[in-house]
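Input for the complex:
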Amino acid sequence: MRLALALAALVIALTSAAEPRKSGIDYASAATQTLQKDDAQNPGMLWVKDGQARWTERTGAANKACADCHGEIAKMRGVAVRYPAVAMPSRDEPASTSSAPRVINLSQQINLCRVGRQRAAAWPAEHASLLGVEAAITFESRTLPIAPPTTPLLAVAQARGEALYNQRIGQIDLSCRDCHDGLAGKRLGGNTIPQGHPTGYPIYRLEWQTVGSLQRRLRGCMTAVRAEPYPYGSSELLDLEAYLMKRAAGMPLETPGVRP
Amino acid sequence: MNRRTLLRAGAAGTLLIAMRSLAANIVVSPILSELARAYAGPGAVLREGRVKFDITPLVENGNSVPVEVTVDSPMTTAQHVTGIAIFNEKNPQNDVAVFELTPLCGRARVATRIRLATSQQLIAVAKMNDGSCWTHTVEVIVTTASCVEE
Amino acid sequence: MASALITMPKAARAGDVIEVRALVQHAMETGYRRSSEGALLPRDLIRRFTCSFVEGTGQSVSTSDGSSKPGSRLVFAATLHAAVAANPYFAFHFRAERSGTLIFIWTGDNGFAHREQVNLLVT
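Predicted:
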């Protein structure tokens, strides 16, 4: 049975030679691939399970659960593939004084609901509960192709993100493109350099021994090239997220991904 | 031929299989012998065999290394494994885990994920209800991550 | 409140040996890591995992320590040390003979305690 599956995978790999993009999981060791594929072992599933519990938990001054407005979490299928997206202040932030629409990612959307609808305090970046809910929502879109919306505002963010992606930074003076476009598949220390497609976020990263967001990973890379990382929630990180999702458009989501 | 070997067959599998059979002839580190003897108890005789310690010889990330220990035993009330201990050679602490098994297990096979700080030997020691103790020692190479950010 | 995931068949035939897989959310802080500010993060580990079996169907088995309930038998246990990876995972086996409930308990430092249970129907 396993041999048949391996052969089938080989045939699929050969026939999809026209798709040169590869997910980070394709560069990982067999052990890491097994960890991601097996829901019984994938540590990210613990965050998904936690997020699913939070979905029905009443909280905040409004004493509301996500489920009260959105129904069962299965209805979130198709949502995560469209983020980063454009937030509409009138719809998403009823109490907001800002009138300009802006680009937000899924965790910011979750916090908008938390503050605006549940009237609870926003969760800080990388908070376990925020990652749990983000993982649970994104899990519902597992296997769906990444599909960024086509709006002018998002296009501007994507263009800015592409410029940041190509810009050399840090004392080591490297751009994202230098490694992830130019050297993908080659090795850096004990790891293989991936192409850098955000197909599994929030990921369980073995190096962190916990689940983390794309922004955390980007900041980690910036520190690694000895650049001052952009702060969490900064427009630079959002622009990069927007560009990276555009660059990965069409690739299937794997959340919760496991990476070395 | 077990599942792990088959998975690696497509990629430099021959080299890895060769490394594993070489590993069968390694000289067990004194600290592991001592820990195994302490676990086995006074007067116990330690022999190699009946235990299979399954671990990849080349570890990509030492934070999470899958391992599986299988012991050849019918797991009946008359004949069963009572415990399996795993020790490491070069982590800051040598203990990894000690498992207690009962005939209710039905099969003596345990899997878990461990942490390895560096390339080293590991030993799995199985204790039987008849007092006999069996060991399997392995040697692994642990590569470090490319960038440590925090 | 930790999250845990038990993966096992819910039904089996008498005599079957089933695989039981248990995953629990816990950082397993070794005590050797430092924070980004350089401070040593204190050791915080799960120390013990037990799986016990209570025979019978439709009973409430919600005692605080399943393993001391009369009629509960220890199936499998583990004593963990810092070298067990974060979010500990164990896979072991269980010989199904009669219907009942498997009770899983994790305990550790700083009063950590988590419990899960799964019913098994044996025909």
